Amino acid sequence: MTVGDGPARRRTAVVGWVLVALGLLGAVLALAVALGWVGGGSSDGAPTGPASSGRASSGGSSGGTPSSPDALAGWSVDEAPDAYARRLLAATNEARADEGVAALAWSDCAAQVATGRATALVGAAELEHAPLDDAMATCDVELAAENLSRAAAGPRDVVDAWLGSAGHRANLLDPTLMQVGIGCAREPDGELTCAQVFLG
């Protein structure tokens, strides 16, 4: 399993955008998945992002939260990227609840940004963060952060890997980040690359 080279955060300032870099730069976190490593699958079509809640979102507003499927279930190459993203949301909110932090609300806007980011990283040798200016402008917020992963592992295993990295953990448990969107895209070997975009 690979998590991003360090979580990305952006905050607006009166004079312009200021990059807040958190975490360990260039860090790569490997996790032995207790359920076994799965790989070598093939793509089942074009990658998609999380399913919309059916409520329109504009500006910084959030749509409805997708249903909370079992975050502890393992990983399958046959699972659709959008279904996996919903389980990653459930695992993230379970981790926040364990730490006494309020659950993140789903943002359709952040999910669209996240899906674009995950898709752009398919096939990349390393997971690297892009500036978050587009997320803040598109979703009309002053704070955004991002966690990345590439894995053939269950959502809870991915969240545990993020929690094991100081910067990723800070993003995941930050109470000022109140909305999230998650997008996942399938790699040629069957793994899923996911972007988790937080808004504050």
TrEMBL record:
Pfam families: CAP
Domain SCP, first and last residues per copy: 89-194
Top-level taxon of origin: Bacteria
Keywords: Membrane, Transmembrane, Transmembrane helix
Region (Disordered): 43-75
Biased segments, Low complexity type: 45-69
Bilayer-crossing regions: 12-38
Protein name: SCP-like extracellular
Organism the protein comes from: Cellulomonas fimi (strain ATCC 484 / DSM 20113 / JCM 1341 / CCUG 24087 / LMG 16345 / NBRC 15513 / NCIMB 8980 / NCTC 7547 / NRS-133)
Origin organism lineage: Bacteria, Bacillati, Actinomycetota, Actinomycetes, Micrococcales
